[in-house]
Amino acid sequence: MLKPLTMGTALTLALATFVSDRGAASAGAADPVVVYTALDREFSEPILNAYAKRAGLRVVPKFDVESTKTVGLTNLIVAESVRTRCDLFWNNEILNTIRLKDKGLLAPYHPSRAGDLPETFRAKDGTWYGFAARARILLVNTKLVAEAGRPKGIKDLLDPKWKGKIGIAKPLFGTTATHAACLFANLGDEKAKAYFRGLKANGVQVLSGNKQVAQAVGSGQIAFGLTDTDDAIGEIEVGNPVAIVYPDRGPDDLGVLFIPNTLAILKGAPHRKEAEALADYLLSPEVESALATGPSAQIPLLKSTKSEARVETPRTVHAMEVDFEAAAKLWDRVAAFLADEFAG
């Protein structure tokens, strides 16, 4: 595993080499660009600040909160659709971006590096683009779980020997909700419902977010839990006794789910030109490299990004095959089911 750079160092290296024609063209623009971002503020704000300084314009970010991760900003965008305020939506997952597209709230655009992305991670109509992914993984406390007894897949969360000693984030928001919808799309309603009911029956601890799941594993509050690679890396970096398991990674297994950040320009964006310039900047090898080598250890998706990932990628493990568009259409039904099972 490569030693991580600090976010500031990574951004300095990125900015030293990054030149965007669109960004340069807007460097003297007086209008601000309004960005709603669901990526953790500690990771996204330095990048936005660096761009604002380089481009010579004001970037006005609105960050979400952990308790309503992604969903809160999505609902705000819908509520504001009669008078759009947001220019660019930087989501930390994919399904809510697609839901906005399905509501007709996104405008197509064509960033210069769109062709560098795998087809799975870009919209056919140009309304959204994925980059800098995370993997959904199991984080294990190595003092509580012997190496020979480590879980191999998400179904191991149902094993009665771990009853009450496992955890997930509240599955109504963020990447946990996205993971749930993808499981419904992949497994079908009957098997997916049985899985989540099985988690509940096995005494799963439902925590406020993925970071809290990772911290609970690191502290020994739970033996293992389902979380994201960025939160897992945080526990590894502080020296807690944890190990990452990439679940269902075998060629005949369900596969590891990789969830990208996504970028989308709002239909009727007040500052469309500035939004396109910022999107071009974010969808670049330099920014992906900064996110990959920085503390969040994001996974590059652009073919032109040369930085080595610090975690497994879709090129190194079997990835879950999932139709994100189909999963997005299941969102409301899955959310209603999960609210009945886990709300409160």
UniProtKB/TrEMBL annotation:
<keyword id="KW-0732">Signal</keyword>
<dbReference type="Pfam" id="PF13343">
    <property type="entry name" value="SBP_bac_6"/>
</dbReference>
<protein>
    <submittedName>
        <fullName>ABC-type Fe3+ transport system, periplasmic component</fullName>
    </submittedName>
</protein>
<dbReference type="InterPro" id="IPR026045">
    <property type="entry name" value="Ferric-bd"/>
</dbReference>
